[in-house]
Recover the amino acids of this structure.
């Protein structure tokens, strides 16, 4: 559906009725809670009396925390809000926040009462573009990112690794992805996903990196991590260490590619020798969290995930060709690229994928019952979606009953 077509659907001048509350989940590096307050204020203006909840956890640097950590904590908030409003709530997830929102809706499918989920320029099909991350990780490229992101260290270090989808390495994606492949229900999560001590061929870096750190230091780091301290200061400290580790690893990967003048496929992270204490710190902290998140993963029931989405009254997918960050931009509507770089739209992802006959997360069911709505909106930059008045009026507000 285009924006011009959507004008026929909604008449925002109609008499206003009592509206259900709206929960807004921010995106990656969107600063403090004030960045989403504009959207909340405009919803309340267009729908007077609407109660809005703007999630205020994992803002700024903390938004780089691995997505399972964010999903678990934010789900506590969402379920508490749901309990306060038995009439049901709506959820808007912007950018990375759309993936977190979907994770919450799926994993608590028999507990939430979300009626409409608006995915606002969120990479539901995954991200395969590194340009937006180069300020933070100058050596990161789409061609080589898989060498770090498709390891247990990568998956446990930063959120962006959790939804990285490299179409040339789907086998590694299915093997290592600890979030996107799991919420797509194409992979069952198990406790080994959280076990950094378990080595495989692509994880030898965990041994080669584990140097220059004393047993006493590792013990001290682990003791701190085991407090499960999720204060903003502790989260930012963890993320800062993770950023340093990823920067060191990506720099080593880039240097080796330059030295060897070799193809990306021939360079394995097992040959990267990063000796930064920051890498060791990340590993120790993540190891300390293993039991906690492995316990959480026991709730990852495939049937519950499908129930979570199919209970929705509407799933609204919004994206556009001028986004400039989500890559491919059609990922906002569950599209992916194949190994040759050809776009595979959501409805063609049928072979052991999200739109297959067994309908792993219920997209086909939503689609066939006219509850899956797509908007393609040109002329909107990624950082403008939650401020764009036309998008709000013509693509969002009419679904918030």
């Amino acid at each position: 559906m285009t924006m011009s077509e959507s004008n026929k659907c909604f008449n925002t001048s109609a008499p206003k009725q009592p509206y259900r509350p709206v929960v807004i989940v921010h995106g990656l590096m969107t600063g403090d809670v004030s960045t989403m307050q504009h959207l909340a204020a405009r919803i309340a203006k267009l729908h007077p009396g609407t109660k809005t909840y703007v999630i205020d956890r994992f803002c700024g640097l903390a938004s780089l925390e691995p997505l399972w950590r964010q999903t678990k904590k934010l789900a506590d908030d969402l379920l508490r809000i749901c309990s306060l409003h038995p009439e049901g709530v709506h959820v808007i997830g912007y950018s990375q926040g759309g993936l977190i929102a979907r994770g919450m809706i799926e994993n608590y499918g028999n507990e939430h009462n979300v009626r409409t989920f608006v995915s606002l320029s969120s990479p539901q099909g995954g991200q395969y573009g590194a340009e937006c991350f180069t300020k933070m990780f100058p050596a990161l490229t789409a061609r080589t990112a898989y060498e770090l992101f498709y390891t247990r260290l990568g998956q446990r270090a930063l959120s962006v690794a959790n939804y990285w989808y490299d179409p040339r390495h789907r086998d590694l994606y299915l093997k290592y992805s600890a979030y996107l492949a799991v919420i797509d229900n194409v992979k069952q999560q198990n406790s080994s996903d959280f076990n950094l001590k378990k080595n495989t061929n692509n994880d030898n870096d965990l041994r080669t990196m584990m140097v220059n750190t004393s047993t006493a230091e590792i013990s001290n780091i682990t003791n701190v991590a085991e407090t499960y301290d999720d204060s903003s200061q502790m989260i930012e400290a963890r993320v800062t260490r993770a950023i340093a580790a990823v920067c060191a690893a990506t720099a080593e990967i880039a240097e080796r590619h330059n030295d060897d003048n070799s193809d990306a496929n021939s360079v394995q992270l097992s040959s990267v020798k990063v000796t930064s204490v920051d890498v060791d710190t990340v590993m120790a902290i993540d190891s300390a969290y293993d039991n906690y998140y492995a316990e959480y993963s026991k709730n990852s029931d495939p049937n519950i995930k499908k129930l979570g989405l199919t209970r929705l009254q509407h799933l609204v997918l919004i994206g556009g060709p001028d986004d400039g960050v989500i890559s491919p931009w059609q990922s906002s509507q569950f599209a992916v690229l194949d190994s040759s770089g050809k776009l595979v739209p959501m409805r063609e992802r049928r072979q052991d994928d999200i739109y297959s006959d067994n309908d792993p997360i219920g997209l086909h069911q939503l689609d066939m019952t006219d509850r899956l709505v797509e908007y393609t909106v040109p002329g909107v930059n990624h950082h403008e979606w939650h401020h764009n008045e036309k998008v709000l009026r013509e693509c969002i507000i009419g679904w918030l009953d």
